[in-house]
Design goal:
- It is built from ten helices and twelve strands.
- The protein is of the alpha/beta class.
- The protein has one domain: Alpha-Beta Barrel (TIM Barrel), CATH 3.20.20.
- Helix 3 packs parallel to helix 4 and helix 6 crosses helix 8.
- It is globular, with a radius of gyration of 18 Å.
């Protein structure tokens, strides 16, 4: 008698995520000179070295961006420039590493070129809401997805409830494009809910944005569904605000602390600039979690 095994495992690219799997690490590589964290910017031979190093340090994926989307910066570039930066980077990375490649973009033309070049994952901080053509690209190429909470209109009220609603909206869009829920990861968009901004990639709120980010980090389990959660706090503004560290390069220790808190509160993937340090911090956090569960 034939035995049929149903694949019921969440995956991001080829990597199993969530449930009993280890917390995964997504390394950030920016090819955009305008990015807020200058140490993450790489190109050419340097990019190859960074990608290889992240692989050796234990990253499970690399996330390549060709345009900064920091809400407080004016960083828009043409789709042609963003696309060239991203595709050039993908070609280089594929020569030195077998890590699954994620492309960090909200624009359909860029996503299409990156997926054609071999990216397996689309990380859309607008949750498929910025570019109407993105659904066609997603439907055609069927990448794994990281979907951020995002609204084009201002949101008010309970930040936890609103974040859940926005993530549900993006999940419904992905399903309408035929993407399996087993290949979708959700991101509560820490750093992208603001009172004001200089670009189109933030969600406008009237409440204090630092308090919002802290609330989300504290209550990740309230956002959990069958979809795994990705959390990206590395060197972000709320850490700088709390620690009075204006230069993102001075936020390593705060970043690691926030990442550990994220893991303890239910994060399944940590997206970070600091792969080596984050890998160690996450390892210890998971050890603590396992010990705590055994003791209950």
């Amino acid at each position: 008698m034939a035995v049929f095994i149903i694949n019921d495992v969440n995956k991001l690219g080829s990597v199993p995520v969530g449930n009993s799997n280890p917390v995964r690490i997504m390394g950030i590589i920016n090819t955009s000179p305008e990015s807020f964290y200058k140490k993450s910017i790489a190109s050419g031979r340097q990019l190859a070295s960074v990608a290889k190093q992240m692989d050796e340090q234990g990253a499970d994926f690399v996330d390549v961006g060709g345009m900064s989307t920091a809400p407080y910066l004016s960083t828009m570039v043409s789709e042609k420039i963003e696309s060239k930066r991203v595709t050039d980077a993908i070609k280089i990375i594929k020569k030195v590493s077998n890590l699954p490649i994620s492309v960090d973009t909200c624009r359909a033309t860029v996503a299409k070129e990156a997926l054609k070049e071999g990216a397996e994952i689309l990380n859309d901080i607008s949750g498929l809401k910025y570019d109407k053509a993105m659904l066609d690209i997603v439907s055609r190429y069927q990448p794994s997805l990281v979907l951020c909470a995002h609204s084009k209109k201002p949101v008010q009220g309970n930040n936890i409830a609103k974040t859940k609603d926005l993530l549900r909206e993006s999940l419904a869009l992905a399903k309408s494009a035929g993407v399996s829920t087993k290949n979708i990861v959700l991101d509560p968009a820490i750093g992208f809910f603001r009172r004001s901004g200089n670009g189109p990639f933030f969600t406008k709120i009237n409440s204090d944005w630092v308090e919002r980010d802290l609330l989300i980090l504290q209550n990740l389990r309230m956002l959990k569904s069958v979809q795994p959660l990705l959390v990206s706090v590395s060197n972000k503004s709320f850490i700088g605000k709390l620690l009075k560290k204006e230069d993102p390069s001075d936020r390593l220790f705060g970043s690691l602390a926030a990442e550990v808190i994220a893991v303890l509160n239910g994060a399944d993937i940590i997206r970070t600039h600091n792969v080596k340090e984050t890998k160690q911090a996450v390892f210890l956090a998971q050890k603590f979690l396992r010990k705590s569960k055994k003791g209950l």
